[in-house]
Amino acid sequence: MRRLRQWIDHFGLLPAGVPDAQTGKVAEAERGLHSSGHASAPELLEIIETINPRVVIPIHTEAPELFADKVG
User: Fold this and answer.
1) Which of 30, 45, 55, 63 could form a disulfide with 17 if both were Cys (CB 3.0 to 4.6 A apart)?
2) In the predicted model, is pLDDT for residue 70 greater than 80?
3) Residue 34 banded pLDDT, cuts 50, 70, 90
4) Contacting residues for 46 by C-beta, under 8 A, at least 6 apart
5) How sure is the predictor about 42, in pLDDT bands with cuts at 50, 70 and 90?
6) What is the mean pLDDT of residues 32-36?
7) What is the structure's pLDDT at 47?
8) Smallest Cα–Cα separation from 66: which of 50, 43, 45, 38?
9) How far apart, in whole angstroms, are the C-alpha atoms of residue 41 and residue 20?
10) What would the pLDDT profile of 20-31 be if each residue is shown by its tens digit?
11) Shortest CA distance to 70 belongs to which of 42, 39, 40?
């Protein structure tokens, strides 16, 4: 989260959907916003279910076991 805040500050952006530095909470109106450019885990699982590939090779993840547990 610290890196994200640094980039937001660097570019002078107005954060949205980012937890407040003091409280750690996201404003109600901003909950569910996703702006990283990457799909979230639930979105990835939905894509995998829709495409129904024979093989899933998780990359660019810190939790590849999530995919093994969810999609076999």
Assistant:
1) 30
2) no
3) low
4) none
5) confident
6) 72
7) 92
8) 45
9) 23
10) 888 989 989 888
11) 42
- How far is residue 55's CA from residue 62's CA, in Å, rounded to a whole number? 19
Question: CB neighbours of 67 closer than 8 A, spacing ≥ 6?
Answer: 44, 48, 56, 58, 61
- Taking CA atoms, 1 is separated from 5, 18, 36, 43, 46, in Å, by 6, 8, 12, 21, 25
Structure tokens at 1: 């989260």
Record the tokens describing residue 67, joined without a space: 């995919």
Q: Where are the domains of the chain?
A: 1-35, 38-72
Q: Could you tell me if 16 and 33 are in contact, meaning their C-beta atoms sit under 8 angstroms apart?
A: yes
16, 30 contact by CB (below 8 A): yes
Alpha-carbon distance of 58 to 38, in angstroms, equals 13
Q: Which residue type, as a one-letter code, is found at position 72?
A: G
